[in-house]
Automatic annotation (TrEMBL):
It is found in: Cell inner membrane. The lineage of its organism: Bacteria, Pseudomonadati, Pseudomonadota, Alphaproteobacteria, Rhodobacterales. It comes from the Bacteria. GO terms for cellular component: plasma membrane. This is TRAP transporter fused permease subunit. GO terms for molecular function: transmembrane transporter activity. It is a multi-pass membrane protein. Part of the tripartite ATP-independent periplasmic (TRAP) transport system. It comes from Paracoccus aurantiacus. The chain crosses the membrane at residues 30-46, 58-76, 88-106, 113-130, 166-190, 259-279, 285-308, 329-347, 381-407, 419-442, 449-470, 476-499, 511-528, 540-562, 597-616.
């Protein structure tokens, strides 16, 4: 906890330029100190098996002390490093310190990020020392082992490169904001808000999961923690109201995955994206609104059709809090979010916004006797913040080694050329290759690590293919998240399956079906920037309208129920459902520029295809009222 307090004071002093005791730190030294504090904290929080908050052993204390000693050397000599170019010609002592610090980073990455990520990072970190012996197209400029690790530790392109700069500048404030919001009752408020909004509608328990997990995921930025937090309440409620265990687990997994893509917070990755693109974070947020809305609309539509087809009702009246009471008790959270969005969008103070929002939240919290935080609760909040920041720092420092290796060897440019050569002039093939690559890396890495790696390797190739830069980076982010709901890994679905007490693999395949639009949406917006708002208003309106209608058709076809019309059943059910899905896909096609048969023709063809199953469903009827909760 002491390390967390020290780090928070350092961050506030630096970001607000307070000049406490006349101290003004250059950026390099600031990042050195910040990384050192959280690197040491990682060894005190995560034991050798990667378990959190276990008994701290003598080895852990020794490694934490070594992290502080080696990191202090970097901070003290930051000016000499800058003036003398240690990344290319470090003195002997500095070289040994670089080896020690890099080794500590690799072990911290293993503890906080897992063995798979640590293995990938380790191999790539050593890559510059044998780069010339690797077959083309993966060969690159070779360095000695000491030159390699001096570059990793002392340059501004590796451990202390863009990811760490983003963390020390913007990310850290939003991590603190999310942690404080959850510990002060934000999670309960958003869950009650979701219950009040949609709890009594058909399939209400699942719809509550969608809204609640969307709110929570946007704050936490972690799929797994989101599943375990909101799923503990939502999954039993879904099962109790008639959802199968597999569907309950899949719904929670999909909703939690989408939460990380949901503005305004979007987890740490979006801030790093803004740093890579050198644009304000608000531009990333605004661009992500339509794609994330499409994903949640699709999930909501599928759940609604699923509940209607099976006659599932909403929650009991006494299980649903009154919306008026929820808003009256939770107005501080609305006010805090209003301040956050105002400072980010209107005042453009992205770095300061989360700190002012936290200050307002704590002040309001102390005024209210019902939610007032005591000393013990405050200590728990600090521990939670320290744990989250240490985990993220360890992963970011480790992934920084990957960035440094590509920078040192020039491999990124080589891979870009090779990808463009393989794809030829076909941008769609390049996108499919990129999606598959992102999916594979997403299996073994966190969303942040996966994004950083692919932003270096893959994004330049897609940009060279003539695609919009921001849409390319969002495309990579989306496809890196797909692995959370796609077997054989599907970590989000597997975590939800443990709560639902069902087969993890079946939950994973059901999550694929419910979240199927997440596979389509990235292709929609990367091929037509209108869907991220980068077009005239009329084009945006037309593209968004086509996309939403088409996605709605696809969802109804997947579930076999046409909303407000009736059920698709009987002998020709499967062909009719296929027609509705394909018709919906064609209707969304006008939002994609490679629809070679002309703008609008695909929409007409899609509408014609969809009309047949809709007419059949209308004849069959069997429409369940949207609100039919058990009385």
């Amino acid at each position: 906890m002491g390390l967390t307090i020290a780090a928070l004071l350092l961050v506030i002093n630096q970001l607000f330029n307070l000049r406490t005791f006349g101290i003004v730190l250059m950026d390099g030294r600031y990042l050195n100190i910040l990384a050192t504090i959280f690197l040491a904290a990682t060894y005190l929080i995560f034991d050798i098996r990667g378990h959190r908050f276990e008994k701290v052993s003598l080895i852990d204390w020794a490694l934490a002390a070594l992290a502080i000693a080696s990191g202090s050397y970097l901070a003290v000599n930051a000016m000499e490093n800058l003036n003398q170019g240690w990344e290319f010609a470090a003195p002997q002592t500095a070289q040994w310190v670089a080896f020690v610090f890099a080794a500590l980073v690799l072990e911290a990455t293993r503890r906080a990020g897992g063995l798979v990520l640590a293995c990938i990072v380790t191999v790539v970190a050593f890559y510059p020392s044998f780069a010339s012996h690797v077959p083309a197209p993966f060969s690159g400029f070779q360095s000695t082992l000491s030159q390699t690790f001096a570059y990793h530790v002392y340059s501004s392109e590796s451990i202390f490169g863009i990811p760490m700069k983003a963390f020390g500048g913007v990310v850290i404030g939003f991590i603190i904001f999310g942690a404080v919001l959850q510990h002060t009752g934000g999670g309960s408020f958003f869950n009650d808000l979701a219950l009040g909004l949609v709890g009594r509608y058909r399939g209400g328990a699942a719809k509550v999961s969608i809204f609640g997990s969307g709110f929570m995921g946007s704050m936490s930025g972690s799929v797994i923690s989101n599943v375990l937090t909101t799923g503990a309440v939502s999954i039993p409620a879904m099962k109790r109201t008639g959802f199968s265990a597999n569907t309950a687990a899949a719904t929670e997994a999909c909703a939690s995955t989408g939460g990380v893509l949901m503005p305004p917070v979007m987890g740490a990755t979006a801030f790093i994206m803004a740093s890579f693109l050198a644009i304000p974070y608000t531009e990333v947020v605004l661009a992500a609104i339509i794609p994330s809305a499409l994903f949640y609309f699709a999930l909501f539509a599928q759940i609604d059709a699923y509940a209607a087809r099976r006659g599932l009702r909403g929650l009991e009246r006494d299980e649903v809090p009154r919306l008026r009471d929820t808003l009256r008790n939770g107005w501080p959270y609305v006010l805090v979010f209003g301040l956050l969005i105002f400072m980010m969008v209107v005042m453009r103070q992205e770095t300061a916004a989360p700190f002012y929002s936290v200050a307002l939240l704590l002040v309001i919290n102390q005024i209210s006797r019902r939610t007032r935080i005591g000393f013990r609760k405050f200590c728990d909040i600090l521990l939670g913040i320290g744990s989250s920041l240490a985990e993220l720092t360890a992963i970011i420092l480790g992934v920084g080694l990957v960035v440094g290796s590509f920078s040192a060897t020039g491999l990124a440019g080589t891979l870009v050329n090779e990808l463009l050569f393989i794809a030829g002039d076909n941008v769609f093939i390049l996108l499919v290759m990129g999606a598959f690559t992102a999916f594979i890396f997403g299996m073994g890495m966190t969303a942040t690590a996966c994004y950083i790696f692919l932003a270096i390797v893959l994004a330049p190739a897609l940009e060279a293919g003539g695609l919009n830069r921001l849409s390319v980076h969002l495309f990579i982010l989306y496809w890196g998240m797909v692995s959370y709901i796609t077997p054989p890994v599907a970590l989000g679905a597997y975590a939800a399956a443990t709560l639902a007490k069902c087969s993890p693999m079946r939950a994973g395949f059901e999550a694929m079906r419910l979240g199927s639009i997440i596979y389509l949406v990235p292709f929609l917006f990367v091929l037509n920037p209108s869907l991220i708002g980068h077009a005239p208003a009329l084009e945006v309106f037309l593209a968004v309208s086509c996309a939403f209608i088409g996605v709605g058709m696809i969802c109804m076809g997947l579930q076999g129920y046409v909303t407000f019309v009736g059920t698709l059943a009987g002998r020709f059910e499967l062909p009719l459902r296929a027609m509705l899905v394909f018709g919906g896909f064609l209707f969304a096609m006008p939002a994609m520029p490679f629809a070679g048969i002309g703008f609008g023709i695909t929409a007409l063809l899609g509408a014609a295809l969809a009309a047949v199953p809709i007419l059949v469903a209308r004849q069959r009827g069997h429409v369940l009222p949207a609100v039919e909760a058990a009385e």
